[in-house]
Design a protein that fits this description.
The protein is mostly helical and 339 residues long. Helices cover 76% and strands 0% of the residues. α1 packs antiparallel against α2 and α2 runs antiparallel to α11. The longest helix has 28 residues. The chain is globular, with a radius of gyration of 20 Å. It starts with 9 loop residues before the first helix and ends with a helix.
């Protein structure tokens, strides 16, 4: 299997420049967390303009749905903890199920992630709900629009509006796996905030996002994605922390490092090997270290907290997956045990 080329090509340069420009626009608009604009731009970048366009549209639609429903339900159910937990469980189960059976899988992922973030925020600081919903939606919209514009100008692709391949209808065994995945994600969405409050864990957002991001229908795939997420974030995050540790305050010098790192990791992210997800996560990790609030980083500790949060999310997901697998074995596993 050929290794991804590390010599920057036009697509890698477009991805790196799109991420930088998304951050610059977010800084100019004084958005709360420009990191979300950067991650959105990076995640939708792709050598295939159809994939880029569909990811962008679904990211925006999923985010808006998650923000709106999350805010409305969080306000209506404020201070009714049992109802909040029940709604969170039901909504995340539904979003996860649709993720594996719908042609709009990525939209359901973002809807579930955003809804969870809004609801979890309501547990901690309900007074900030409207601001969180507004800023997350604005930041993601900026990232998507900027990357689409950069892609159109730099790559000059043929416009293909829509690329939504419908997954095959699941059979009995696949349906069983999807149901367990839905149960797992909903359980994680409830367990993680509880652990966070009790144990004073760092970076709740990254713990929650990680558990949803690495989830797949089978344990082997989830374990592989978990390994790639941890490895990638450690590689990219380590590089980002090193740069942050230099204490660079010049926006233009900081921009040079950001561009170089994102172009490099985009080459792997766009690759067609089984390690492309490593590049995706390395790019995220690099952004975690490079973007702390509305300007160049002044400390490495927020980046370290994010990386710790990602690692904790992986641990929680693996433990919950093993528990659910033991409690609800598949038909194949039940047959093997009878033999």
């Amino acid at each position: 299997m050929a290794a991804p080329a590390l010599i920057p090509d036009r697509r890698g340069l477009a991805a790196g420049f799109g991420v930088w420009l998304a951050v610059a626009v977010a800084f100019a608009l004084e958005l709360e967390e420009p990191l979300w604009a950067a991650m959105s731009a990076y995640r939708i970048s792709d050598p295939d303009d159809r994939v880029l366009f569909s990811r962008g549209v679904m990211r925006v639609v999923g985010t808006v749905i998650g923000c709106v429903f999350g805010y409305v339900l969080a306000v209506q159910l404020q201070d009714i903890l049992v109802a909040q937990v029940f709604v969170l469980f039901v909504v995340i189960s539904f979003c996860t199920y649709e993720r594996f059976v719908s042609a709009y899988s990525y939209a359901w992922v973002l809807a579930g992630v955003t809804f969870t973030l809004i609801m979890v925020t309501s547990f901690e600081s309900p007074d900030n709900l409207l601001a969180i919903a507004y800023f997350r939606g604005s930041e993601i919209l900026v990232g998507v629009i900027v990357m689409m514009i950069v892609d159109a100008l730099v790559m000059r692709p043929k416009r293909h509006f829509g690329h939504y391949p419908k997954p095959p209808k699941p059979d009995g065994e696949a349906l069983d796996s999807i149901t367990k995945a839905a149960l797992l994600s909903a359980t994680a969405a409830i367990v993680i905030p509880v652990l966070w409050f009790w144990l004073l864990l760092p970076s709740l957002v990254q713990v929650v996002v990680t558990t949803i991001a690495v989830l797949e229908k089978d344990f082997a795939s989830t374990r592989w994605k978990s390994l790639m997420r941890v490895s990638g974030c450690l590689i990219g995050g380590g590089a980002g922390v090193i740069v942050a540790g230099l204490g660079i305050q010049s926006f233009w010098l900081w921009s040079v490092f950001l561009l170089l790192g994102m172009v490099l990791f985009a080459q792997i992210h766009h690759g067609k090997t089984r390690f492309s997800y490593l590049g995706t996560q390395a790019g995220y990790g690099f952004l975690f270290g490079m973007i702390i609030g509305p300007g160049p980083p002044g400390s490495i500790m927020p980046a370290v907290d994010r990386l710790v949060g990602i690692s904790l999310g992986i641990v929680v997901m693996i433990v919950l997956y093993m528990m659910i697998e033991s409690l609800f074995p598949s038909a194949r596993e039940r047959a093997a045990r009878r033999r």
